[in-house]
């Protein structure tokens, strides 16, 4: 709505001619009547680079945008020339299905810009590819490189087209998708699963139907050897019937390496819980990988986590993201069972989640663990927790205190909890530490107020000029207000204003009281 209003405002002020300075997203909201004929090609080429999802597919505004672009480019029928396709950009995604075969192979690269094609567009795309009259050739001649070159278009291939691709090629492509699955984000994983199922369906159609096994599995029961060829393609119900608990336990890591849906993941969790009704043994917890993320805080509170190796395995980033509440419960359980947080564990936990620990839990962290944890970002901690962690860091790095440079590098992440006395010691150590502005602004506001102008100058060193850029930060404003303006000018010399003014003179002493009949001759000194 804001972009739409802004577009109307610019049009009202006759500023649409200078569209080159506007972001492409804004151009989507211009009315075609506001686009000049002489520059319309450049306008629509730039607008097509915007986020078309800002305009709902099929909406009047999006339809009007495409119509304006086609008129500008002189398109009269279904066929579009390569130059016209290039100017349309992602607007190609809204073309009628008939334009795909009419425009021929030239349209394929443009269609790769489309997040998704309609059913009719997919049918038209497959019809064009089945002619074999494209750069990709006949589907029966495709190899792994061809499928990779098709890019996002491979998601639009139907069973007729896929069935013509050699089975060995389909299998190579399936394996390449599965190999990349673990490093993909959620949305990309969903697309990969769709592809895997499509290729699996094509393979199933070319093979004789297997008999239903006696235990209800619609195909052969899953074995260790058949995991890669079965687990990703079964529905949750089929997985439940075809994967025995014993096979899962023996091959848990192999099963978890396969790309599966959330529904299938819940089946695996159910089977693990069935295997260990009295609780998952600690050695088995290490094997859970990403499956551990499906457990609730209540379930985690029952885990037997006593070893740092177990906690490290559970926290490993290779298993995906945890919810903060899950990590909090996991750490609480580990500490309650007598566990101790080491430097490597603190690195796995990270500064943000470290801040979620209770104060009494932070108090239990050994100073030496802080010393080996590396750089932890504790900016989100409460002031009390920052002070707790600073004291531990101060103890851990005390041996470096005689070498201010190395000492500062180690203590820097924890200075938000430092008292003014320690900051003054750093400032007057005789070695420039050149504190960066972010660290300075993260100091305890109460302690900063106790620093003199010279202290601040010595702390910032060569970064002092940057303090001027932050003069409106509340922390800086409150500090400046209690400093002498003259000292700010003479010592810092960076133009900070708002300090205490110098008195214009000393107060005059009171005149002595004299009788009314006596004329005083006393003078008032200046």
UniProtKB/TrEMBL annotation:
<keyword id="KW-0130">Cell adhesion</keyword>
<dbReference type="GO" id="GO:0016020">
    <property type="term" value="C:membrane"/>
</dbReference>
<feature type="region of interest" description="Disordered">
    <location>
        <begin position="501"/>
        <end position="526"/>
    </location>
</feature>
<feature type="region of interest" description="Disordered">
    <location>
        <begin position="210"/>
        <end position="229"/>
    </location>
</feature>
<comment type="similarity">
    <text>Belongs to the mesothelin family.</text>
</comment>
<dbReference type="GO" id="GO:0009986">
    <property type="term" value="C:cell surface"/>
</dbReference>
<keyword id="KW-0732">Signal</keyword>
<dbReference type="InterPro" id="IPR026664">
    <property type="entry name" value="Stereocilin-rel"/>
</dbReference>
<keyword id="KW-0472">Membrane</keyword>
<dbReference type="GO" id="GO:0007160">
    <property type="term" value="P:cell-matrix adhesion"/>
</dbReference>
<keyword id="KW-0325">Glycoprotein</keyword>
<protein>
    <submittedName>
        <fullName>MSLNL protein</fullName>
    </submittedName>
</protein>
<dbReference type="InterPro" id="IPR010335">
    <property type="entry name" value="Mesothelin"/>
</dbReference>
<dbReference type="Pfam" id="PF06060">
    <property type="entry name" value="Mesothelin"/>
</dbReference>
């Amino acid at each position: 709505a804001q972009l739409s209003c802004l577009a109307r405002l610019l049009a009202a002020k006759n500023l649409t001619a200078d569209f080159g300075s506007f972001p492409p997203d804004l151009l989507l909201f211009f009315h075609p009547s506001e686009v000049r004929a002489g520059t319309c090609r450049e306008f629509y080429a730039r607008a097509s680079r915007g986020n078309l999802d800002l305009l709902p597919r099929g909406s009047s505004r999006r339809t009007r945008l495409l119509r304006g672009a086609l008129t500008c480019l002189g398109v009269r029928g279904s066929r579009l020339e390569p130059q016209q396709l290039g100017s349309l950009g992602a607007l190609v995604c809204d073309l009628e299905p008939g334009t795909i075969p009419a425009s021929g192979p030239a349209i394929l690269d443009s269609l790769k810009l489309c997040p998704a094609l309609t059913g009719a567009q997919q049918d038209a795309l497959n019809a064009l590819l089945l002619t074999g009259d494209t750069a990709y050739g006949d589907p029966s001649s495709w190899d792994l490189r061809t499928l990779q070159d098709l890019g996002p278009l491979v998601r639009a291939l139907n069973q007729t087209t896929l069935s013509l691709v050699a089975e060995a090629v389909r299998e190579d492509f399936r394996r390449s998708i599965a190999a990349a699955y673990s490093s993909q984000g959620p949305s990309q994983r969903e697309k990969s699963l769709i592809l895997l199922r499509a290729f699996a369906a094509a393979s199933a159609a070319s093979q004789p139907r297997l008999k239903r096994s006696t235990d209800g599995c619609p195909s052969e029961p899953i074995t260790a050897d058949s995991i890669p060829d079965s687990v990703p393609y079964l529905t949750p119900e089929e997985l439940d019937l075809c994967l025995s608990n014993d096979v899962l336990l023996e091959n848990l890591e192999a099963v978890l390496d396969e790309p599966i849906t959330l529904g299938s993941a819940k089946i695996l969790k159910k089977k693990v819980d069935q295997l260990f009704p009295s609780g998952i043994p600690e050695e088995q917890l290490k094997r859970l990988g990403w499956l551990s993320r499906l457990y609730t805080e209540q379930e985690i509170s029952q885990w037997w986590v006593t070893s740092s190796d177990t906690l490290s395995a559970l926290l490993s980033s290779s298993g995906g993201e945890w919810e903060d509440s899950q990590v909090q419960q996991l750490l609480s359980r580990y500490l309650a069972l007598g566990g101790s947080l080491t430097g490597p564990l603190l690195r796995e936990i990270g500064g943000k989640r470290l801040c979620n620990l209770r104060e009494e839990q932070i108090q239990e962290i050994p100073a030496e663990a802080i010393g080996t944890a590396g750089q932890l970002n504790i900016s989100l901690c409460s002031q009390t927790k920052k002070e707790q962690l600073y004291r531990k860091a101060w103890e851990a790095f005390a041996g470096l205190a005689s070498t201010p440079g190395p000492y500062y590098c180690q203590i820097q992440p924890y200075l938000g909890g430092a008292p003014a006395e320690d900051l003054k010691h750093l400032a007057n150590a005789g070695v420039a530490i050149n504190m960066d502005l972010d660290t300075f602004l993260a100091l305890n506001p109460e302690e900063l107020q106790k620093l003199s102008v010279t202290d601040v100058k010595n702390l910032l060193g060569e970064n002092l000029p940057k303090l001027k850029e932050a003069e409106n930060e509340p922390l800086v404003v409150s500090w400046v207000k209690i400093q002498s303006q003259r000292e700010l000018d003479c010592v810092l010399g960076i133009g900070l204003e708002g300090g205490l003014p110098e008195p214009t003179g000393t107060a005059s002493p009171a005149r002595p009281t004299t009788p009314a009949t006596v004329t005083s001759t006393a003078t008032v000194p200046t």
